Amino acid sequence: MALEVMKTVQQVEAQAEEMYKKALEESREIGRKADKEIDEEIARMQQEAVRDAEQKLAAAEQEAKEEIERLTASNEDMCGQMKEKAAANLGQATALITERIVKSLDH
Q1: Distance CA 26, CA 30 (A)
Q2: Has this prediction a pTM greater than 0.85?
Q3: How far is it, in rounded angstroms, from Cα 77 to Cα 16?
Q4: Total structural domains in the chain?
Q5: pLDDT tier at 105 (50, 70, 90 boundaries)?
Q6: Can you tell me the distance from the alpha carbon of 29 to that of 100, in angstroms, rounded to the nearest whole number?
Q7: Domain that includes residue 6, residue range
Q8: Which long-range contacts (CB under 8 A, 24 or more apart) does 72-77 make?
């Protein structure tokens, strides 16, 4: 009887050891799967961040392009106005210069 109890205890211990090894391997596999899922999620989030940054950059570039076009048009308009004013004053400036030259030659 003691021998049977001893064999039963040994069998139970062997089963417990096997269960422990199986549980340990399962926990390692769960850890590996979790690590893989984390890595995949990080990669997905990085890709999403890159796409978001690219979209924001494209929008900022478009906005800058539109602002440059607006400023260029405004500057061209101002230059045109300045040329018109200069052209309008050209006759008066020519007359003034001619008058001074004539006066300087008379003295």
Answers
A1: 6
A2: no
A3: 90
A4: 1
A5: confident
A6: 100
A7: 1-82
A8: none
